[in-house]
Amino acid sequence: MKNETFLDSIKCAIKGMKYAFKTEKNFKYYFFIALFFLILNILLKSTKLDYALYVIVTSGVLMAELANTAIEHVANALSREYNEEIRLAKDIGSGIVLMQGFAFFLVEGIVFITKLI
């Protein structure tokens, strides 16, 4: 089960990201919203700091979505029947995404408001 090489690990990670992109609508939403903000950053001639913040919050929200997807799959593998602990794990995973999503929009909002003022 363990990858033999670092390259094998990267291949597995890319498979996981492709799977999330194909199957998780919220992952797609955040991905395309991130592209939109990247285009805005380019058009507004953002600073290096703005781009650094963009990379941090964008990668954070996409990682949160990946982690939430992993939590959901593990939980579903354990049981498809209703279980309060599984429901809580899934809700907490969703909460991680929500908090990072707020941070994403807050940081990008601040960057663009300061550019437009």
What's the SSE pattern? Answer: HHHH
CA distance, first residue to last residue: 54 Å
Percent range for β-strand residues: under 5%
Ranges with pLDDT <50 over ≥5 residues?
Answer: none
Main sheet, how many strands, which sense, barrel?
none
Number of strands: 0
Mean pLDDT: 93
> What general form does the structure show?
globular
Percent helix, as a range, is over 70%
Note the total helix count: 4
Alpha-carbon Rg, integer? 17 Å
Class from helix and strand fractions = mainly alpha
How do you describe this structure in short?
This protein is mainly alpha-helical.
Written overview of the protein:
With 117 residues, the chain is mostly helical. The chain is 86% helix and 0% strand. The chain has four helices and no strands. The protein is globular, with a radius of gyration of 17 Å. The model has no long low-confidence stretch (mean pLDDT 93).
